[in-house]
Amino acid sequence: LKPLPSYLPSFNGIYDRAYLIALPFNLRQNYYKKIADSTSPACKILLITLEINNHTEGPPFTVTKEEIDKFLSQTFSVKLLEKEFVETYNTKLNDSDLKGSHILTYLLSKK
Length: 111
Prior knowledge:
- The protein is α+β, with helices and mostly antiparallel strands and 111 residues long.
- It has helices spanning 19-22, 25-37, 65-72, and strands at residues 11-16, 39-51, 76-86, 101-110.
- A 4-stranded mixed beta sheet has the order 1-2-4-3.
- The longest helix has 13 residues, at 25-37.
- The chain is globular and about 45 Å long.
């Protein structure tokens, strides 16, 4: 990910429904750092991720609660708002690859 221009203000709010789950793990690490560095002290983030059973290729990619805690909990308070079981997830992939998945919704608040 490219650095943000210095003339941009820091962000007060972010809604991420599909960006994070579109990135493979090695790129998500850069994304976590970018989020921490480019958000204001009052920032709130509504983050929606997927935990996909038996699905290793993406996108979408699985992003677990453990990963969110590991990479974001030093900078943000992480609150899981909902973990919703879904029979199938609407994607171009074969739906059978995504059966038994969970959609996780988080509220992140800058510490």
